[in-house]
Amino acid sequence: MLRRLAQDGFALALLAAACGTAGAAASRPAMAGASGACEESTATRVAQPTEAQMAAAGLNALPVAPEEARVDLVAPPFSDPTGVTNPLFPIANLHSVVLNGKVDGKAFRTETTLLPDTRIIEWSPGQCVKTLVSQYVAYLDGRIQEVALDFYAQADDGSVWYFGEDVHNYEGGVVADTSGTWLAGKEGPAAMIMPGDPSPGQVHRPENIPGLVWEEVAVKTVGKTVTGPRGRVAGALVGRELHDDGTFSDKVFAPGYGEFYTAHDGDVEALALAVPADAAAGPPPSGLGRMTQGADAAFRAAGSGRWRRASAAVGRLAAAWRAHRRAGGVPPRLVAPTTRAVGELRRRVSARDRGRARDAALDVTQAGLDLQLRFRPPAEIDRARFALWTQQTIVDAAAGKRAAVSGDVATLEWIRDRIARTLDSVAVTRLDTHLVELRANVADGRLGAAVRTARALHRLTLSSSTGRTVGLNGTRTRTEAAP
Which of 42, 171, 371, 437 gives a 20 to 30 Å CA spacing to 248? Predict the structure, then answer.
């Protein structure tokens, strides 16, 4: 299991699971137990929770579907498990995805990234599968809230199966708990997350461990047309999801995108942009470059109290944003957060609020990077995001916000896993050394030292493996000095 112990220092454990010996016949219930060796993948019956288990978890009164409607009771063989081609859950081709919405009345934003790692899981005695690893990072009101590493594989009939997730829930910048973590073959059975050929009336359980994680989805509609980042998308699926508290919600999956829209009790999470599905040829439009240049100039000017210069920078970036919108082609769900970020920066600069103006400038840069994701390689955007969070660390440490700095460092540690393989070995060693030092600075309450380490990380990240210095918008830049 991939684990992050953020409060104890930077650590990345890529633990290989050993496969076991004894095989399970296709008719044998598939519950876990490391048995020693992996057999050839075969159709395997998936163990289901008993009535007693459902009752023990308080789920016995749920209006679950009859067994004859279920399409996830037997898992087909997994001959090419990482070659995911299911258009409604194309995780193998979702290199970088941004979703946004609202949770608890606050702005909610996620980054989902396909990592270069795979994970071998013995999910039933003798049955092992190589899974893809997808990293999900959620931000609530601009700060890290949850990180999950999700394990997926596709069966031979085109269905996609969920083999667990490693969850880290953050409060005050540190991991508060790991609620929701589970692994197929350890806590419970593997679970189907998307049928191979969905049709109305089919039912499956994407999570199926009473008392830990549980939900059931009934396919309600197929062939629906939805509005996506670049226009209309045909062939979407709407599923009605039954939660463990007895409530229902609709969840939409769209071809080429996978999970597209979900809403529950006023909370909304919807896809804003996915790459490569929404990738566009050529360099970013010049207006996006002017936006990030303006945000960087406003950040530096606000930091030194040069308010007239900061105001002029905001004017330039606001004009660039208006022109970019008029030109068309902006993914609809990125319009509102970008407009809000620009407006907030203008207000904070007008109020001469140094700390919040710098925060707002970084929010504009974040929005600008989301817009640039269509035009630049995901790893390049992630390196720029890393650089942005080093700047956020500097701002928070200078303000004495220890909890915020701890969350900033956790964010850097997770983004590190996306970019490490794009850097040379010496750069990775330097990066890791600085991250360990930065985590120690925070643990010891030495925020002044944290500023210096974050500044060194910023310089390192902006230097590519060939030594070329690249700014957030693709131009040369400089690191903001500590106040």
Answer: 171
